Amino acid sequence: MTRPSLPLLVALACCGAGLPLASAPQSAAGAAEYSPAGADTCLMCHSNDAVLGIFRTRHAMPSDPRGPFGHGQLQCESCHGPGGAHAGMQQFDGQMAQVIRFGRERPAPVETRNAACLGCHDADMGFATHGGAHDDNRIACASCHQLHSPTDAVLGRSTQAGKCYECHAQRRSDSLKAYSHPLREGKMSCSGCHAPHGATTEALLVRQTTNDTCYQCHAEKRGPFLWEHAPVAEDCTSCHDPHGSNQPGMLVRRAPLLCQSCHSQSGHPSVAQDAGGLAGNSPYLLAQGCLNCHSQVHGSNHPSGSKLMR
Amino acid sequence: MCEMSWNRRGSSRILTAAVAAMLAPAAVAATPDTSEWKCERCPFAKGYQAEFTAGSTYVSDDAVTVGDATGYDEKGAYLNADGAGLFAADGHRLRWSAEDLGLDSRALDIAGGRPGSFDYRLSYRQLPQRRFDATRTVFSRAPDGLLVLPPAWTFAGTTTGMTALAASLVPQDIGGDREILGIGGRVQATARLRAFADLQREEHDGARMLGAPYFTSASLLPHRFDYRTDQVDAGIRYDGDRGHLKFAYHGSFFDSSASAIAWQSPFTTAPGAESGALAEAPDNDFQQLALTGSYRMPWLDTRMSFTAAMGRGTQDETLLPYTTNAGLVTAPLPRPSLDAKVDTTHLAVTVLSRPLPKTRVKFAIRYDERDNRTPQYAWSRVVADTFLSGESELNVPYGYERLRMNLSADYDFSGSLSASAGYDFTDVDRRFQEVGEQNEDSGWGRVRWRPNGWLDIAAKGGISRREIDGYDTALAAGFGQNPLLRKFNLAYRYREFGELSVSATLPDKPVSLGARALYADDSYSSTPLGVTGSEERHVAFDLNWSMSDRATVYLVAGYDEVDTRQRGSGAFSPVPDWNARQADEFYSAGGGLRITGIAEKLDLQLDYSHARGTTAIDVTGGIGPAAFPDLETTLDSFRARLAWRWSEKLEAILQLRYERLPTEDWALQGIGPGTLPAVLTLGAAPYDDEAWLAGISFRYRLGGE
To answer: Which of A207, B294, B529, B665 could form a disulfide with B484 if both were Cys (CB 3.0 to 4.6 A apart)?
Structure first.
């Protein structure tokens, strides 16, 4: 009986799932024949700790009827595709038949790998996976997730950032800045603010706007205040760089220059330096600078607070 | 944390059912008969397995920067414990982890359930924030919350005359602690319907520095705060054959536990102004309903995702009086509380289509509105609790509408070369600001070349132009602004940007390399006063080398440079009389080593990071010296971990850590509580921390045979 090749099947499966055709077939792939005994066949050869780790994960729950190891499911071949030819060590074009590989060595095309995941997890991925930044850049699910590991690093609060830094290296650098959120200490994760699986928001933020995302932990700055500070109400990143900064408070520039970007009223707001400079013990430059007096810079609810001093 | 559950489609359909739907039966590999697939070799998790770690760490010195977020802020010995475990039986699964139980950064997470049916989670964690530990204050907190001075305090016009200052100072740490308790769960009600709910309570208390002015003098207060934020996220999700729909509620409720921050002024004041009050952050809440979904069109391999969210934020805290000065007669407040309301609307649609095998087109449109419906009233103002300003001021309920559109297309020329191009448009309408309407057009192109399986090179470049419909100088003048000022977020801007990334996984070599460079140049050519331009350059590099199955090495490095130029007019004249340039530089480098299974018993991990940031500020023109001293921050961090497997169950772990964070900061350098005549400070000094942490712990494993 003539059987269609695995790449063809995968490609068609992708079409069925609304995904693109695999851009390149796997080399020497096998025919779409399942193994004779499922996981028992696979584990005859693949039984090292790295493989067996999956049995400590949610994917290996026989009681879950929809999981890969649920009753009637295809076990290893749920994700790796039909492995009959591979198990039978059949040769195609001089190479042994392969299953869908997810690892670093000779991985299947991104679309093929992701189709295996999204076949079950499409709805979980934040609704905007398709067209999200990671999808735009053709990032494979398995580039971040380790399915066989009992502790998937990207799901751990203290280990997630390290995974993200593999591509977002600039953020690793930011995390080392003197004023930054505690990612370096493993006490905060990127996914506290970003939805890596996709969102219709700017920068894949978990809430609808930048400010709404910040207010998750900084609700005291939400107001609405009697006296609002216009940029605060619109965009926290006008003044703060949440990934880290050389300036206290993760400010994008040092006060008073930052404040003077938008304030030029006569008198001290417009003066770049005090006449005596730092040696003159200027109350406008030293200690908290502008905030020595205008301490309610995020907004004031005091009836006399229009200058953000009450 | 992402959800990792399964939708209604069984995994057996992943390949075979989809294929079956597309192919004639003769060509399909039918779903195999799995009745004989016993999975006898499968070591499914059963019963319990857990590991417990207990030990002690000694910290060599007090160091707030080391203790920030970790809890290791004071010199001495710390007992600590961690643990993790898994219990699985009868389809039920429970995983727990405990971290830093002996520290102020402790965390406990429990997650369990029956996959495919329901799951639940419970979490508790603390996050210490340590800012300054050598700060001192003259204030103490009276039972009613008023920050009072010592009985023998000597009032004076400047700190120089406060003769009781030195004797009155008491230690006051600046920092806080967050405690976060979370509980949540999901229920798979039917094959297509799921309900979820997550609740979180965060308690945040501590002390922070807060400026309290009296005319041209000010006191930095040790403001003690006690905040609580409750958050609720709940909803239902429906999974259809071609799409998904989620209806969710989000609520956030903030309680500041106080309405005023009152203090006794240490300066000589006018009669009746001996004390003052700032408004504490008001209690407020925000609630939002959101409908999100996605749909797979039956044509052209097209998907659509959308969001529609409407919310309302309210704040109705009872207002403080205009002044604490009982001797001043003020008009009554327009209303006892503000009854502030902000309505938010967010609408977004993204359509992604692959009309041809090599072509991908994406269109996204998003609308955001902050409709501030807070009523406007005329308010009087009391200046420094001393006199009425005589002015009547209207509160300004800022709001905006923002529309964003993006259109992009990708074309795959071959398996190795692809190109993308896009156009982005943003339009912002603001209320009560100098610029009513602002729009920005951006165009960009990107080329990606993957000549083989191990090399990936991408280059992107583009320009954007932000135009405004005019700058309302009359409105700006109403705020007292120089008519030449153009606020940087409202001004005309022309931007050029570029990006280059290279990643390589060497063929047949266990080495991977990555490098990325970004560049952006902003020109505010229509800005006479304010920010006139900025340039950003970022470079990052990393290398990973798996020397063997047991040993890996990595190296990372980064460099950032941000130059900003601005102009000002100290004389408030129509001619700029000073220019300033802030040059921020930051570089970091690090490396590490992981070796496992040394002599089958030892695992070694080494990490080192060095980072240095410098901010140079030069001012030309104007009064005063031309240059500020450089602001500098340096970080050296070394961490070593050696684990010795005594047996299958017992492991000994030695850890050594070194942290050093010296800083140079002219704003704090040498500024004691009484150094500045006009500002009574807390004496916060630049960080100069250095500490060694040495620890030993033992890990014991249970179960899991």
So the answer is: B529
